[in-house]
Amino acid sequence: MNEVINLEFYKGKGAFWDEGEKPISDLDIKVAEEKLGVKLPLSYKDLLKEHNGGILKYPNIFLEENDKERFTIPEIYGIDFEGEQNGVGILATKYWINEVGLPKTIIILWGDYHSWIALNYEEKTENPSVVYYYEDYLSDNEKWKQLKIANDFDAFLRKLSRGSILDPKKLKPSYGRNKE
Fold first, then answer.
1. Which range marks the domain in which residue 22 is found?
2. Taking the model in full, what pTM does it have?
3. Domain CATH for 106
4. Is the pLDDT assigned to residue 178 strictly greater than 80?
C-alpha cells in the first residue's frame, strides 16, 4: 500500500456529520427500538440526536485487517417512520431483508442494493458488531458474503476516516501535465 498521508480518523465527539436531517428525540428512538425489537448502540443514538442520519464527514473505512481495501460509506441512515414501507432509513430493514434476502438478525445502516453496512444482532447483544455484506457473484450457493468490520459500533466509528491515502509526491504526472 502507498504511504498513508493526510488520513484523519474520527475521534469521537465533534463534527461527525457533513450534512444531516433534523435531530430526533429520545421518544422517537425508543419507538424505533420497539419496532425493530433491539436496543440501538448508545453512540449511534447520540449521533441521531445531532442529525437523524445524513452524509458523513468521515466516509471511508478499510474493510480488511491488512488495510488494502478502502470502502466509502457516503451516509448513515436515521429513523424515518414514513420510509418504513418504501425502503428509507433503518426502519426499512425488514423491507430490504425480504427484498434481497439478507439475514434477519441485522439492522441496515447503509446500502446500495449490492452492498450493505449493518448492525449484526446475531448474538442477541445490546452492543452488536458492524458487518459489511456484499453480493457474491461467483458462488451458486450464497448470494451474500459477510465481512465483520468492527466488534461494536464504537469501534466502527473509530475506523472511519477521511483524507487521501496517496502521496502526491510519488504519483507520476498525468499525460499532458507538466512535471513540477
1. 7-166
2. 0.84
3. 3.40.1580.10
4. no
